[in-house]
Specification:
By secondary structure, the chain is an alpha+beta fold. Helices cover 44% and strands 17% of the residues.
């Protein structure tokens, strides 16, 4: 039989692979790189959108349906998520991997330092 962790991993992998998200940032690693690494770790397929021209970003920024359009941002279906920590949390919840946030309130607070 498969262990609980094995089942959790397999379940999160299947869920995460169901729909690709878009991670957008400037054409450098910067603040989006830890987000990309987290998406890889969680087996979430993503499109890596890189802005090299500020005019292209400003044109897209005007069309984003977000209260605070900013880079990096994540598109997941009709959802737009900005701010690095919020994007990381979104990916963790999308993959159903809340275990990465810890078991106690103190652990959860400390986990926010690392994402």
């Amino acid at each position: 039989t498969q262990s609980t962790w094995g089942k959790l991993f397999e379940s999160s992998r299947k869920m995460a692979e169901s729909a690709a998200v878009t991670i957008a940032y400037w054409g450098v690693q910067g603040r989006a790189e830890p987000i990309r690494q987290l998406a890889e770790y969680l087996h979430i397929q993503y499109v890596n959108k890189k802005y090299t021209d500020p005019q292209a970003w400003f044109a897209d920024k005007a069309t984003l349906n977000a209260p605070f359009p900013n880079l990096p941002y994540l598109l997941d279906g009709d959802k737009v998520v900005t701010e690095s920590q919020a994007i990381s949390l979104h990916l963790i919840y999308k993959a159903h991997r809340e275990d990465l946030l810890g078991k106690t309130p103190e652990d959860r607070v400390l986990s926010l330092i690392h994402i």
